[in-house]
Amino acid sequence: MFEIWTEKYRPKRLDEVIGQEHVVSRLKAFVKSKNIPNMLFAGPAGVGKTTCAIALARELYGEENWKQNFLETNASDERGINVIRGKIKEFARTKPIGDVGFKIIFLDESDALTQEAQQALRRTMEKYANTTRFILSCNYSSKIIPPIQSRCAVFRFKPIDPEKMKAHLKKICESEGIEVTEEGLDAVVRVSEGDMRQAINILQAVSITTKKLTVQNVYEVAASLKPEEVKEILELALKGNFTQARDKLIEVMVERGMSGVDVIKGIHREILGLNIEEREKAHLIDRLGEYEFRIVEGGSEDLQIEAFLAEVVALKSKLIR
């Protein structure tokens, strides 16, 4: 049977969660008191928000009762007012099982809820305050309406520290019999950018074809640009070799099946390391943001990427002031 490693290696206890010690210490204090407030977990993807919510429920209710007292729903799938009035309200009005006097409703990606759904949720949180606690998880807390934010204790999650991520990935590789190279691990950490879920998924994808983690197979599996490739492309453009830079970039994009947004992100990581003036770096990042917006809004990926390379060529040719 095929196992999904992100579930296989998901921490079961709060003590097992890595990289979020500032959050875990507060959650453990709530578990000890057998009481929790409504909570808002905010932070980037793959840093442990859902894991902390489930681990909290396991420790609070015990292994036998936590599933009966914990409802998880993904707001990006069920984002309308009907899910608040139906599924969530039905769960909230029933009594908890065990010696803890409340249930927990976990709303993942709650920043995807419509404004009407959030207003309905606010009223539900008020009505069932004695029997239910809500944990809202989101990437952007600014998308949650102020009345809900004011009813929640806010927990800010941060990207996983690279060294802690590497140590955890090494343990997984040892458990799965994967030969590790330091450069390969560095590549996984770099590509995942603090997202533990993505890092583990990359490991599993690599393990299907080979039992050795190298830089080459990491970038192939992740469909990401290598730093040296981006640097070469940008340096060609800075020297005025637009056609060569364009051909090199298209070759890499076609070979790895990369999207325009993936390329934009790869370029963004390398701009700050270029040997150009600060003013020029600022200009390129500003223009890069514009081209990413155009791609997201439906513009031609090839055309927008080529237009950015043209900007780089023009910048060093002193055509832009």
Architecture overview:
- The protein has 321 residues and is α/β, with parallel strands linked by helices.
- The protein has three domains: 5-156, P-loop containing nucleotide triphosphate hydrolases (Rossmann fold), CATH 3.40.50; 162-222, Helicase, Ruva Protein, domain 3 (Orthogonal Bundle), CATH 1.10.8; 227-316, Zinc Finger, Delta Prime, domain 3.
- 56% of the residues lie in helices and 9% in strands.
- The protein has 15 helices and seven strands.
- The strands form two sheets. A five-stranded parallel beta sheet has the order 2-3-4-1-5, sandwiched between helices. Strands 6-7 form a two-stranded parallel sheet.
- The longest helix is centred in the C-terminal third of the chain and has 19 residues, at 278-296.
- It starts with a helix and ends in a 5-residue tail after the last helix.
- The model has no long low-confidence stretch (mean pLDDT 86).
H and E order: HHEHEHEHEHEHEHHEHHHHHH
Strand content: 5-15%
* Physical arrangement of strands within the biggest beta sheet: 2-3-4-1-5
Mind summarizing the main beta sheet? 5 strands, parallel
Notable features of this structure?
alpha/beta, Rossmann fold, two-stranded parallel sheet, 7 strands, 3 domains, single chain, 321 residues, 15 helices
